[in-house]
Amino acid sequence: MKKFLCLLSLAWLTCLAAPAAAAGDHVALVKSVSGSVKVMRAGKTLDVASDTTLQIDDQVIAAPKATAAIVFRDGTLLTLGSGADILIRDYVFEPKADKYAFSLYMAKGSAIYESGKIGKLAPESVKVETPTATVGVRGTRFLIEAN
C-alpha cells in the first residue's frame, strides 16, 4: 500500500509539473486588453485576456476599437491599436548564449513599440515588417502603421 501511495504521489507531481513546462514556452504576456482581442494558435481561435501568454507563430488580432498591451520576456513593450493584426514570427532571448531575435509581421493596424533588452543589446536582431516595409530598430520607441 505504501508503495502504491508513493507511485500515486509521484504521478500526481508529474502531472502538476507538465503544465508548468508547457507554460515556459511563452515569449510574451498580455498585460491589459480593451475590447475584443483574439489569438490564432495552431488553427484555433482563443479570446485574449489579461495574463494570456503568447508564443512564437501566434497571430494576435484586435477588433476595431480594441487595444492590447503586450510585454515580451526581455521587457519589450508592444501596444496594439484598433484593428491591429500581428504575427510573432521569431523570438529568442538568451543573454548567456548571446542569442537574440525579435521578428514581427504587422499585416494591418497600428502599434507602439518600445525596446526592451534585445533592442538595446542587439538592435540588428529586431525586425518589424509590414506588407510594404521592414523597420530596423535604431531607436527605442516608434509608432508603426500598416493599412
From TrEMBL:
Record-annotated FecR protein domain positions: 60-145
InterPro entries to which the protein is assigned, alphabetical: FecR
Coiled coil residues, start to end: none
UniProt KW keywords: Signal
Stored Pfam families: FecR (PF04773)
Signal peptide interval: 1-22
Protein name: FecR family protein
